[in-house]
Design a protein that fits this description.
The structure is a homodimer. The first copy, chain A, has about 625 residues and is α/β, with parallel strands linked by helices. Chain A folds into five domains: about 5-25 and about 170-315, 3-Layer(aba) Sandwich (Molybdenum Cofactor Biosythetic Enzyme, Chain A), CATH 3.40.980; about 30-55 and about 135-170, Molybdopterin biosynthesis moea protein, domain 2 (Alpha-Beta Complex), CATH 3.90.105.10; about 60-130, Molybdopterin biosynthesis moeA protein, domain 3 (Beta Complex); about 320-385, MoeA, C-terminal, domain IV (Beta-clip), CATH 2.40.340.10; about 440-630, Periplasmic binding protein-like II (D-Maltodextrin-Binding Protein, domain 2, 3-Layer(aba) Sandwich). Helix content of chain A is about 25%, strand content about 25%. Chain A has 17 helices and 35 strands. In chain A, the strands form nine sheets. In chain A, strands 26, 27, 28, 29, 30, 31, 32, 33, 34 and 35 form a ten-stranded mixed β-sheet that branches. The first copy, chain A, has a six-stranded mixed β-sheet with strand order 16-13-17-20-19-18, with helices on both faces. Chain A has a five-stranded mixed β-sheet with strand order 22-23-21-25-24, with no helix packed on it. In chain A, helix 2 (about 15-25) runs parallel beside helix 7 and helix 10 (about 425-435) runs parallel beside helix 11 (about 455-465). The interface between A and B is large, with 131 and 130 residues.
Chain lengths: ~625, ~625
């Protein structure tokens, strides 16, 4: 069977992991003796036994006086006992018990009198005494082999006077980037190259797992050169596992699986997991070799599911899985904590988009044979951050606005842990998510063409009789963007249509889409009068980028997005962008913090500097239904 | 108010944390510019914006051929279209789209023919193309300030050609151990000293949080010397926070709170949290100073609840809380995963016992005003390890045996992640826990005095009609231990009683207790004939240690425990130690792994070398009720 044909015979990721772990068998990296002080995070290679007992003697468990318990018999509340001072010995917690003393009376139970110490309670033998060996007895096993050492294990070993121990040395991974098109970070990739970031990202990931990573010089897609580089890496006794980046798919330059097959044993090529499918692994020169896909999200997923278990196995400790929580599915996966539990809001970007991961809180796995998961269903999320790390922030759904990122940053700066997680769903999509209880905040700029007012009509229509508050984010200019060298420069949308300029549109439900549709209707234009009407993007910056990169010639957007990409901007309409939320949430301290920022001179200045923003009403509140206005 | 009086006015730990964080206010450690490659785990000090768009050009999203979409219009399954090869361009994932080409046909949808490439489906403009800026647009904020950088953030920043960024420098903690009684690890503490392990344990903890720790030379409990050492530490610009170890209680040598009060501002002294109560914090020379208790468990708890939030705040990121899971309370807290969820088995050691933490999986917080939590209640556990790290192991309850630790180690060595967590409850206590479904395995050695057989009678009585299996751990010698210089040496328990030797007993429900009670009854002895009968310990080694340290003169135990502490052992009875489990669990792969070890030459040799063990039947299975014996 050809490699290409085999690649189509994908195996489940669990089977791939099992094949890899079975191929590793009992192989472990060597043990080394190190100081216990340096051992946290390492894995024990041998069981550890206490060298001495702890405590090493009978010791006071409280501050007070050491006594012979027999001296205290009979003392009660009603019949206090006076102990002669010279028969006692003051003692502090941890002090060894003096010979022939067998109990401690805590300091707070003693009344110091001139004649002696008065006590009102008898103590029994060994009361408030930590017996020698109570915690650990000399010779006792205090840590088994194959355990990852925590700080408290360091404490336990030192107290048992164990100063050195045998641990597995850190697993060493060599990372070999491949590809003809690679350039280094900082170089200009616009001539068609790709910045080689994966090796750095994976190095950080591998180091976060307690292993070591070494980056090798990138290699072009030339089988002979690749083979030499791989064999050199595997011959290095300091390399326990080799990662080959990219080249594991079935494209023209994807040689990794073929090379593994011809020089070693190919364990699998391709797993039924997207992203992460184009992954290959084998044993070559007696060492594990894993080929990871070039798309960063695929590489990260494959590393978590296959590389991490292999590293854990090589160091002889338990194979770690990801943390999981239960959440109600919104769309594709950012997380927000609500009174009723977690809500998962899908991000829905592709495997090539690193922001899919860098903006995500977690991953939802969907079965290969799944036909989809309905919104509202409870799902299990594998966390990229721990629940407490997922900022105590606000889940925002709705229209995209650049001032939101500034607000997110300002909130994080003023109240660490606070922030806004934006799911761009458009104005209408955001209100619908708010109505379903899947967002803390919606954001919209919806013109009511009859009244000429913004948002209130649409919010009332979608949110029904719910008590709703609107907080003004800002007023902003909507208009047309064009490349600065556009000739002739149209003065409005109808003029652009007449010139045959290719338009880039926003998705249905976006406030900007409703506005451009409204302007077209006013001008008597239909979609077929506007070439590119069907070309839809989800954000202002995506529209600006389409024009800048000549995928289109003009589009509707906010001034700040046009300015960010040095495009020409023709202002057409000033609109109000509101944050929409249940009125009851106005009391939430996070909303208070948010309003403080909206009204702050810093935030207002930063936002106005973006261009096209007016913050004259930022932070002001309106409540719906109107007859209940109270603020 | 005197400090001592104030110490009695404990404040809730949440109030203490709030006071400390409020005192820190907006204070942050300085920012520094570092390479993005080195930034994982650090905290952003400024928002990060994309330097270039990603992808930096329109790029193929699949391996295949680049086409003009207009060329493909009309192609269907029934009307395939033949594209001339010279109008196409082969392209691999990530390659830039050639000028004037606007879509990619994936390689698997192409049939290569002599006359050209046959396609059976049209593609639309931009299909399988990643548009320039689709992931990140130049100028877009890709990371807000105050966020902890993950590996995927490193990838995102490098792809956006951001190579350096401003992060908070690591927070630097100086650790000052105090106390007249300290000695270094490796020194002999048996003359009344205490091994200074806390600074090393806390260093490991602080480093695991991404901060730096520097240990200062220990200081005696002399206020003037202490003050000088503290002022020196605080004058060091490389110190952001000072930890003073021990001296924060209200004992004679506890000067920390007094010194803070007289040289700075004391924020609190004492929190209503046990362990962890004797903690103090203040601001001195403009820097935070925290006095931690000397007991290791108290120090760790206070560090988690007060130090960690302070370090997070100083680095400007979200204050992290511990991970939590829901579990059903068994006793006091080790964790085991059952089909029905997690079960929490309390360890119940003291604040001075580091094994309370080093053997624990998590912490259960009990409210100050709680009158107790009934077994069986669902409780929230703060995890010391992540759920996936808590070994896929077996929760054992019952009699303590040294062969169990050897088995734990052997299992961890052969199947990483496997292991046995022992809760010593005695033979009867273990069976009761098994019956309640709170342990995977019980361990017992219960003599039926009528039949002279071990375990089956008691198991049937306690487990009722449940189908139960017994796996023999080993046979072992029970007997009397004495110090080797005992003169005269008694030959049995009645002889020891006649000599007036002080006995150390096991707790009620322990198989050894039932055995010693039986031997006493046979000899016509009553508890009052045996001095020390009421002195109870929970394990064999604790009994041995009591005799070694002269807290008692003799006790009943297994030979291995006596041998471990070089005591004289008088064998009296050979008994069978069985592992008891639901018969259905015999199919569990963990039980299979366990039996493999019990029957292995390695485990048997190691256990027999402990002394007093016979492994002739180790690993053999008996099933109850007897009429269903099948193995």
């Amino acid at each position: 069977m050809s490699l290409r044909a085999r690649y189509r015979q994908l195996i489940p990721v669990e089977s791939a992991r099992t094949r890899l772990l079975e191929a590793l068998g009992d192989h472990r990296v060597p043990a080394e003796e190190i100081a216990v002080e340096e051992a946290a995070g390492r894995v024990t290679a041998q069981a550890v036994h206490a060298a001495i007992s702890s405590p090493p003697y009978h010791a006071a468990a409280m501050d007070g006086i050491a006594v012979r318990s027999s001296m205290t018999f009979g003392a009660t509340e009603t019949r206090p006992l006076l102990l002669p001072v010279d028969a006692l010995q003051p003692i502090d917690t941890g002090d060894p018990m003096p010979a022939d003393f067998d109990a401690v009376i805590p300091v707070e139970r003693i009344l110091e009198k001139d004649e002696g110490h008065e006590i009102r309670q008898a103590v029994s033998p060994r009361q408030h005494v930590r017996l020698c060996g109570e915690d650990m007895v000399a010779g006792e096993m205090i840590l088994a082999s194959g355990r990852r050492i925590r700080p408290e294990h360091v404490g336990a070993m030192l107290q048992a006077n164990v100063c050195r121990l045998f641990v597995r040395r850190r697993v060493r991974v060599a990372i070999l980037p491949t590809g003809d098109e690679l350039c280094e970070p900082g170089q200009d990739p616009s001539d068609g190259r790709v910045i080689e970031s994966n090796s750095r990202m994976l190095t950080a990931l591998i180091e976060s797992w307690g292993a070591e990573a070494k980056r090798l010089p990138p290699q072009p897609d030339v089988p002979k050169q690749l083979t030499t580089a791989i064999e050199q890496a595997l011959a290095d006794p300091g390399v326990d596992l080799l990662l080959i980046l990219a080249g594991s798919s079935a494209g023209r330059g994807d040689f990794t699986p073929r090379l593994i097959e011809s020089h070693g044993e190919l364990l699998f090529h391709g797993v039924s997991c997207m992203p992460g499918k184009p992954v290959a692994a084998g044993i070559w020169a007696g060492k594990p070799v894993i080929g990871l896909p070039g798309f960063p999200v695929s590489a990260m997923v494959a590393a978590e599911t296959l590389l991490r278990p292999a590293l854990d196995r090589l160091s002889g400790c338990a194979v770690k899985g990801p943390e999981r929580i239960q959440a109600k599915l919104n769309r594709a996966v950012a997380l927000g904590r609500f009174d009723s539990g977690w809500v998962a809001a899908p991000l829905g970007r592709g495997a090539g988009a690193i922001t899919t991961l860098s903006r995500a809180h977690g991953i939802l796995r969907v079965a290969t044979d799944s036909e989809g998961i309905p919104a509202g269903q409870m799902v299990e999320i594998e966390l990229l951050q721990s629940p407490s790390e997922i900022f105590d922030g606000l889940l925002f759904a709705g229209s995209h606005d650049m001032a939101l990122a500034v607000l997110d940053d300002a909130l994080a700066g003023s109240s660490p842990g606070m922030g806004i997680h934006v799911t761009p769903l458009g104005s209408l999509g955001g209100l619908a998510a708010l109505a379903r209880g899947e967002a803390h905040l919606a954001g919209c700029h919806l013109l009511d063409t009859e009244s000429g007012t913004y948002n209130e009509k649409a919010v009332t229509r979608i949110m029904g009789s719910a008590e709703i508050a609107l907080i003004t984010l800002a007023h902003r200019q909507q208009g047309l963007c064009l490349r600065p060298d556009q000739e002739p420069m149209p003065k409005d949308l109808p003029a652009a249509a007449r010139q045959g300029l290719r338009f880039v549109n926003r998705q249905p439900g976006a406030g900007t889409r409703l506005l451009s549709d409204h302007l077209m209707t006013q001008a008597g234009l239909t979609p077929k009068d506007l070439p590119g009407y069907e070309h839809e993007e989800f954000t202002h910056v995506a529209v600006a980028e389409a024009v800048r990169s000549k995928a289109a010639d003009c589009g509707m957007l906010i001034e700040a997005a046009a300015r960010a990409l040095n495009l020409k901007f023709l202002p057409l309409v000033e609109e109000r962008f509101d944050l929409v939320l249940p009125r009851a949430m106005l009391d939430d301290p996070r909303i208070t913090a948010l309003r403080v920022q909206l009204e702050s001179a810093d935030w207002q200045a930063t936002v106005e500097a973006l261009g096209g923003y007016d913050t004259r009403e930022s932070g002001s509140i309106r409540c719906l239904p109107k007859n209940k206005w109270s603020i």
